Amino acid sequence: MARPPITRANPYTPKRGRFVGLTFTSERQYRNALARAKGYDSWSAQQRSRRPAGSPAAIRQLRPAERRARDRALDALQMMRREGLSLTRAAKRAGTTPNAVRRHAGRALEQTGSGGYRAKSYDRMVREMRFLTREGVIVLPVRDSRSASKIAHYMGAVDHYLRTGDDARLRRFRGKGVWVDKRFRPFITDLDLLDRLANAGEVSFEELYARAA
Question: How many domains is the chain partitioned into structurally?
Fold first, then answer.
């Protein structure tokens, strides 16, 4: 059974282990104590020290909570890059923390002269993204932000067409595609094929969601 969050109104006193008998009145206090027991100055320092998942295999091995945290960090990175938000504002909007963004997406950030952070214009972080083929939707390990952005815009255009019947946004993808793992993946713009895939249940609006930052 999961432990309820630690608060002043709901303190936590471990009944076994290193901290048996000690009472904690906040999650941060307890996490800081755990981190110090492992040799870190604080929980924040422990978060920053962890090596982010850098390969598709490593991403798949993340626990569900860690994978969601990575996804939220990529959401924040996307907001910083596209909207020019600060790290703090982007993290808040994405439902995460600046420390978590630095932990999972630190390679895509650079420090400013004022001590803040901004998103680099380009990064080589791995993203597992949904991609539409002639057989249906597959998941591709996309290894750079520019390719991820192209896929996201294409999938958005497909989504728009299937929802509205308007193919204007799809036209700019005719004859184009993206290279992933040394293989060229063409963008499907044949409207009859897209309609057949949708009618056969090979495409759903949920599946078309693609992450890019």
Answer: 3
DSSP character string of 79-124? HHHHH---HHHHHHHHTS-HHHHHHHHGGGEEE-TTS-EEE-S---
Q: What are phi and psi of 33, to 5 degrees?
A: -65, -40
Q: Within a domain: residue 206?
A: no
- Same domain, yes or no: 141 and 191: yes
Quote the CA–CA distance of 98 and 108 in Å, as a whole number. Answer: 13
pLDDT digits (tens, 9 = 90+) for 27-75: 999 989 988 876 667 888 777 666 667 788 888 888 888 888 888 999 8
Q: Are residues 61 and 109 in the same domain?
A: yes
- The C-alpha angle with vertex 188 and arms to 58 and 121, in degrees rounded to 5, equals 50
The SS3 of residue 74 is helix
Domain residues for 80?
A: 56-119
CB 101 within 8 A of CB 182: no
How far, in Å, CA of 209 to CA of 206, rounded? 6
Contact 74, 104 (CB under 8 A): yes
131 and 71 part of one domain: no
Give residue-wise pLDDT tens across range 133-192.
999 889 999 999 999 999 989 999 999 999 999 999 999 999 999 999 999 999 999 999
Residue pair 210/202 in contact (Cβ under 8 Å)? The answer is no
pTM of the model: 0.69
